[in-house]
Amino acid sequence: MTARDEMAREIRRHERTEATRRTLRRIGVFVVFLVILALAYTGYKAFGQSLDDAQTDWPMIGRVLPRTDDLTMPPVSDIISEFTQPPQRNSDKPLAAFIAEAALFTMREAVLGFAFGVIFGLGIAVVLLRSKWIEQGVTPYLVASQTVPLVAIAPIVIIWGSTSLDWLPFEWTNWMSVSLIAAYLTFFPVAMNGIRGLRSADPAAMELMRSYAATRRQTLVKLQLPASVPYLFAAFKIAATAAIVGAIVGEISGGVRGGLGRLILDFASRYTTGPSRLYATVIGAALLGLIAIGLVTAAEYLVLSKRKEEPLAL
Amino acid sequence: MQWGNKKGLTRWLIMLAVFAMVATACSSDDDASGELTPVKLQLQWFTQAQFAGYFAAVDQGFYEDVGLDVTILEGGVDIVPATVLDSGAADFAISWVPRGLVPREEGLNITNIAQVFQRSATLQVSFVDSGINGVGDLAGRTVGNWGFGNEFELLAGLRSVGLDPDTDVSLVQQQFDMLALVSGDIDAAQAMIYNEYAQVLETVNPDTGELYQPSDLSIIDWNDVGTAMLQDAIWADADKLEDDAAYRETAVKFVEASLRGWAFCRDDFDKCADIVLAAGPTLGDSHQRWMLNEINNLIWPSPQGAGTMDAALWNQTVTIATSEGILKSAPTDGAFVSDIASEALANLTADGVDVIGNGWSPKTIELKAGGE
Asked: By CB distance 3.0 to 4.6 Å, which of A111, A275, B25, B326 could disulfide with B321?
C-alpha cells in the first residue's frame, strides 16, 4: 500500500464524514424552519383571535387572509395530538398508523410510476436524439401532453386498466393504473432533461468517438448516457415529487382506495367535523414527498461520488 | 472510459429492477372463487353507510348463498358509475336516477333494475336565526349548492314558488363540507340528510361550546316541496339483459341478495353498522350510525316492496329533469325495468323476508363531536 493510496483513502473518509455532517445540518435547519413555521402559524392565529376578542374588525382577515378560528386553522397542538388519536372511536389504531399505511400504498404507486416514467422518458429522449427534425416535431406534443388535466385522463386509464389488460400474466389492479397516471407526469421532465443531458457530451469526446468509428449505440452508452447523468438526476428530483402528486390525484379522481389520496378526500369531505385530521394527513403527504426527494438525492450521491473515484479516462 | 461501461449500465438496470420489485412485491391477489359467478359492483361514492346493504350482503354471505362472488368497487371524484358499467368494468352500478338517465340519453344502453331509495335525501339547511323557513325565504339569499347535477331539486324548488334562480337568489358553488354554512359565508347550504346535515350536528357551536342542535337548524326537504328526484338505484347493462340469459339470471340473484342485505341492515341495525365501520376504518362511528338510520328511512317502508319503482316519483324525476334541461326529452322505454326486481321480491317473500318494512321505526342516534 503506497502513501498515495493511503492519502486517497483518507480523503475519501473525510469526504464521507463531511457528507454526513452536511446531511445532519440540513435536517437540523429543516427542523428549525418547521418550528418557525409553526410559530408563525400560531402567531397569526393569536393575532386574529385577539382582534376578534377586542371586537375589532380588521378587514383583511376573513376576506383576503384566511380566518383564524379553530375550524379554519386548528391549533398546532391539535394537529400534533391528532396523529396519536384513533380516527374511529371503537378502535385504538392511531391516525399516524393509518397515514403511514396509506403513505406506503401511495409510495408503491409512485415508485412504479416513477420507474415507468423514467423508462418511457429516457426512451423518448434517445429517440429524439436521432434527429433535430424529430425533436422539433415531437416536442410540442410532449409539452401539450402535460396540459391535459390529470382528472380527465384518470378515469379513462382506470377503466382501460380494468377492462383491457386481462391478457397480462398477472392480475392488473387499480393501483397499477394509478402508477400509469403518475408516470404521465414523471416522463416529461426525464425526457426533456434527458435530451439536454445526452446532448451535453463534450464535443471533443464526440469527435473522438466518431474517429474511432464508434456505432451510434456505443456512443450513446459509453459517452452520452454517462454525460447526461447530472441532468437526469435533476429531472429525477422533479419526477419523484410529480410521481407522488400524480399518485395522490390519480387515487382521488379514480376512486382507488388505500392511499393518501383517499385519506385526504375522506377527511376533506368531513372537514367541519375534524379539521386537524385533514391537516395531519396533508403533513403526512408532504413528508412522503420529502422522503422521495431524499431517496433520489441519496442515489445521486452514491452514483456521482462513485464517479469521482473512477476518473474518466478521457 | 470507465464509467459508461457495461457495469454502469447494469447498475442502472439493477436499480430499475429493484424499483419495479419493490413496487410489485406487495401485490399478491389470489382468489379461489370456486364455482361462484364473479360480479363487480360500482358504487357512486366511497364506502359509507349509504351502501350498507351491499356490504352487509357480502359480509353475511347473502351473495355467496345465491352463487355470486361480489367485489365492491368504490367510486371516485371523477368516476361516473354509468360509464364504468357500460365499459364492462363493472356488472352493476349504484347511481342516482338523473345521473343514470343523462348518460343513457347520450347513448349508453343501461337500465334501472331496482329503485332502492324510495325518497330523496337532499336538503337545504340554514340556521334558524337566518329566518329561512321555506323555499320562498331563499329570495335574496346566498344559497350554496354542489353543482355538477346536484342542484336541480333546488332550481325546480325555487321555480315552484315563482323565484328565478338566476336573478332572485345568489347561487354559489359549495364545497362538500359544511364550512361555508358554519362560517356564515352562505345562508343556506345543500346537504344530504344522512351526511352533511349530520356533520353540522357534529360541530361545536363556538357560542355555546356544545354541539349544534337540530333546533338550531331549519331544513327545506325537497320531498315536502314536491321537487324531489330519485336517488340510489341499481343499474344494469340493458344489452346484456336482452342477449345474455345468464346475466339476467345473475341480475335477479344480485338484486335479491342486495335487498336481503338491506333488510338485514333494517333488522340488525348494530351489526350492519359494525360491518360498514369495518369496511371503512377511518369512518366515524356515530356518524355512520346516523347515516344508516337515515338510509333506512329512505328505503323503509317500501309500500310496493323494496326495489320497486314508485311510478309517481319516477314521473316527477323525469318531469324535473326535462324541464330543467338535464334531459333533452323524456327517456325512451326501458330506462327502468320492473321484472327483475319483482322476481327478486317474489323469491324473498317466499323465503319469509319482510320486503315492505312497515315495522321499521327510526332510531334516535346521538351524534358525537367529529362524528366519532
From this structure: B326
What is each CA distance from B225 to B154, B161, B191, in whole angstroms? 10, 9, 16
- The values of phi and psi at residue A171, to 5°, are -80, 125
Q: Provide the 10 A C-beta neighbour count for residue A255.
A: 28
- Same domain? For B158 and B190 the reply is yes
pLDDT, tens digit, 9 for 90 and up, residues A154-208: 888 988 988 888 888 888 888 999 999 999 999 999 999 999 999 999 999 999 9
Q: Is the previous residue joined to A230 through a cis bond, with omega within 30 degrees of 0?
A: no
Question: Are B287 and A263 within 8 A, CB to CB?
Answer: no
> What is this structure's pTM?
0.84
State which of B209, B225, B241 marks the end of a domain. Answer: B225
Owning domain of residue B148:
122-225
pLDDT above 70: residue B33: no
Q: What is the pLDDT of residues B180-228, one digit of tens each?
A: 999 889 999 999 999 999 999 999 898 898 999 999 999 999 999 999 9
* Minimal CA separation from B209 to chain A, in Å: 12
Examine the domain organization and report whether B270 and B196 are in the same domain. no
Alpha helices (runs of H) in A212-274, residue ranges in sequence order: 216-219, 225-254, 260-269
Q: Give the B window 153-192 contacts with A, CB below 8 Å.
A: 175-179, 182-183
Strand, helix or coil for residue A60: coil
CA count, 13 A, side-chain hemisphere, B295:
27
- A108, A269 contact by CB (below 8 A): no
pLDDT reported for residue B2 = 39
What residues have CB less than 8 Å from B138, skipping those under 6 apart? B124, B132, B158, B163, B169, B187, B188, B220
CA angle A23, A29, A31 (to 5 degrees): 105
Quote the minimal CA–CA distance from B173 to chain A in Å. 15
Which chain B positions have a beta carbon within 8 Å of A165's beta carbon?
Answer: none
Regarding whether B189 and B76 lie in a shared domain, the answer is no
**Nearest-neighbour CA in chain A from B206: distance (Å):** 9
Q: What's the number of domains chain B is made of?
A: 2
Buried b (16+ CB within 10 A) or exposed e, A113-152: bbbbbbbbbbebbbebbeeeeebeeeeeebeeeeeeebbe
- Joined together, the cell numbers standing for residue B13 give 438496470
Q: How far is A172 from chain B (nearest CA, A)?
A: 10
Helices (H) and strands (E) in chain B, counts: 15, 10
Q: Which residues contact A181 (CB under 8 A, 6 or more apart)?
A: A113, A150, A153, A154, A157, A246, A247, A249, A250, A254
pLDDT in tens, A20-72: 898 899 889 999 999 999 999 999 999 888 887 777 766 667 667 778 888 88
How many CB atoms neighbour CB B156 within 10 A? 22
Quick one: B247 and B345 in the same domain? yes
SS3 A230: helix
Residues of chain A neighbouring B29 (CB-CB closer than 8 A): 171, 173
CATH of the domain at B88: 3.40.190.10
Inter-chain touch B177–A270, beta carbons under 8 Å: yes
